Amino acid sequence: MSYPPVPEQRRRSAGLATHGVRAVTALTLVLLVTAAMWVLEFVDYTMDGALDEFGIQPHDVRDLPDIFTAPFLHVGFGHLLSNTVPFIILGFLAAARGVAKFLAASLVVIIVGGLGVWFTSSVNTLGASILVFGFFGYLLGRGIFERHWLDIAIAVGVVAVYGMTFLAGVLPGDPLISWQGHLFGLLGGLLAAWMFRRSLDGR
Question: What is the pLDDT of residue 201?
Answer without folding.
Answer: 39
